[in-house]
Each structure stands twice: as structure tokens, then as C-alpha cells.
């Protein structure tokens, strides 16, 4: 697959033929039309185009913070959509039955639209209904042109250099990655488990993984300890929190089955890669992945990996409602905190909002938006306290750690905080700092400063005088 991506000569010789073939399959003309575009044709294109859209789409869906999930039949969703369209003077169009029929053609399964229930977040439902109303009033030619723009966005990097340069003009970027890096990323994105297999160490399962499991056990214990010490959470909410901690499941490193004979071949069954047809390789893999997801309908796979092991990061599966106070231990959307606890929690967040809003980025002369970054600031502050508590539990059970050469003068606690600071150590350009003002994360420097100002163990470890910059009297502590 990498060779096909790097074979620029063949890509140029084939030109736009693969794109034209895909347009034929979708039902789009080879060139955008200004006349003779009908709503039916456009709807068919949108449905079909969805099968190809995941080729370059890898982002997780953001978690909704304030709406519950309910179950609806397709007809109920259509009725709600019709009501919204009537209020906005739009034309009611029966779209949802056709939409779901189109999606399930890859599974070859018929749905009972009178009985099948769809779990949908209320905010998502509102968005879909308003979007349907907007689309119903949008001229078909505009929708067709939108699809054409998405075709360029999705396919440009995998065709000719001319089309890719056009893509860069429409979507400019400060840094254009080398083709070798783009191709390596494409292989990793589309065949991540295969890449993981190539670099996986057999000893990981028996040697490294058990150590990580011990670390996670310490983290869970530390979290339960921090919850137990909170004064703003009532006992019943604490009890439910403990139960949720017990139900937490973890996926570590790579799946145990990855190194078992024949399992990788079974995982990628049906995928064929040709060294001369790069675009078709990308599309066929995407189609098979979509079919695999549709096969999960009514038969969800336990412990499914939503990102590949080659992604060096920690992640939560938003799609299965695994985190936040908005979902209970079983993943159901409900407010399982008491009203008093919720009120106390929201009052305490004001402290963090004020603290981070006071941080000024000197290069820009602007302050951080404490409201925008609140969610991530809560996570940063809680995580460092939890990690330090887990670290001290570890030291109590195992004794002092061996000294790191060159750092013998520092205590384990000092090494812990230096490691945390090093994690976010970096140099940012002014453009990067400007972009950070729109980000939900605080700039790197203030992720460290803000959280460590609030942890008493830091100032005690480093003997920070009272009222010094890193040891303010008022500390914002939630967990």
C-alpha cells in the first residue's frame, strides 16, 4: 500500500480516471452542473458519498455536555423533523427512511421502521432537524457543488499533484508534509493493526502489560481516595462513583489476539491491495471498515479498539458513553449526581474559571478564556492530583525508586513534578499561541502552572514560600 502511494509516476499516468470512476459510482456528473440538478439525484449522491467520507476522517466525535439520550423510531424522528421544517417555512421531505435504507444497503438488512429504536442525543437530534430544514431550502445545485468540494477534499492527496496543489490553495496550511510521511500516515490510518503487528513485542503481554495494570489499579484507588475526601459530594453520589470506578475497563498496548496465528488475516479479511491502484485501495479499505461497523448492529463487539495501537496516546470512547458525570456506570445518559452535588460542583468551577482567566499570554497581551478551557482545566487539575496520589501509593508498597543518573540530588516526588513539567515543555510561535486562544486546552505553559499552583504537595515538595507564585493561599481544588 505504501508503494502504491509513493508511485507518483503511476498516479500521474492514471490522472483523474479513478476519480471519474468514483463519480460514476456515486452518481455525480464528471463536471458540476448548473442546470438539471434534482433533489432526488442530490439525495442519492449524499447517501452514496457517505460511504467514501471516512477515507480522511479520523476524529472522534465531541462529547455533548448537557443533553440526555433518548430512543426514537425513524418515524418519530421524521415527525420531529417535519415539525421543525414547518416552523422554518421549509418543505417537508421524507428523508430519514430513505437515509437509513441507503446506509443499510452495505449490510443487506431490512429494518422494521415501526419497531427499530435509535438512541440519539437531544442536541444531535436538534442539529439534524435544523440541518434537514436548511437543506430542504437549499438549491440542489448548491448541494451538488458542496459534494464536489468534499470530493476534492477527500481525494486530492491520493490522485495527481495538480489536484493536490488545488487542494492546498483551497485549504492552505503552514506546513506541507513530505509525501513519504503522508503515505506512511495513510498506511497507519487505514491498516493500523497491521502496522502494530509489525512492531509489537511478544514480551509486552507477559512483562509490560501487568506492570501497567498495577499502575492503573493504583490510579483507580487514588481516584476513589480523592472522591472520598471531597466535601461537596454527598455520600450517595460518592457510592455511585465508586461503582463506576469498579466498572471501568481498560485497553492496553494492543489486543491480545494480535499476535495469535491467523487473527490478523481474519481481521482484514476481504481487503486486497494493488500496487498500481492507490486510490482504489483507499476506497476499498474504507468500504470494508464501514461494513464491519454496520455488522456491529445488534451484535456489538466487546472491547472493540476504536483507535489503532500505533496511536501513542490515551483516549476515551465517546461513542460508547464511557466518561463524564452525564453517563452512569452502564453508559446510559442520566444525571446520576444529586442536584445538591451538581450545584456545589458548578459553584466550585468558578474558582478555576477565574484562575485561568487571570493568566496572560505575554507575547499576545491577551488572557486565556477560563470558560472555554474549563473542561480541560478540570481534567488537568484532577489528573495531576490523582497521578501523584497513585505515585505515593506505589512508593509505599515498593519502597524508594532507584536514582536516575545525574539527578541523584532530587527526591522521587521532585522527579515526579519535573516529569510532569517536561511533558508540556515546548516553544510556541505567535501563530500557535493565537490558535491556542481558540482551543479548549490552555497553552502548554499554563497547563503546568495552573494545575501545580493548586496542588499542595507541589509547594511542599519544592518548599515554595506562602503567597509565592506557585504557592498561592487560595487553591482551586475540585477532586
UniProtKB/TrEMBL annotation:
Transmembrane segments: none annotated. Gene3D superfamilies: Collagenase (Catalytic Domain) (3.40.390.10), Neutral endopeptidase , domain2 (1.10.1380.10). This is Endothelin-converting enzyme 2. InterPro entries: MetalloPept_cat_dom_sf, Peptidase_M13, Peptidase_M13_C, Peptidase_M13_dom_2, Peptidase_M13_N. GO terms for biological process: protein processing. It comes from the Eukaryota. Keywords: Hydrolase, Metal-binding, Metalloprotease, Protease, Zinc. The keyword Transmembrane helix does not apply. GO terms for molecular function: metal ion binding; metalloendopeptidase activity. Its cofactor is Zn(2+). GO terms for cellular component: plasma membrane. It is found in: Cell membrane. Residues 316-477 form the Peptidase M13 C-terminal domain. The keyword GTP-binding does not apply. Belongs to the peptidase M13 family. PANTHER family: PHOSPHATE-REGULATING NEUTRAL ENDOPEPTIDASE PHEX (PTHR11733:SF133), ZINC METALLOPROTEASE FAMILY M13 NEPRILYSIN-RELATED (PTHR11733). It is a single-pass type II membrane protein. Residues 60-255 form the Peptidase M13 N-terminal domain.
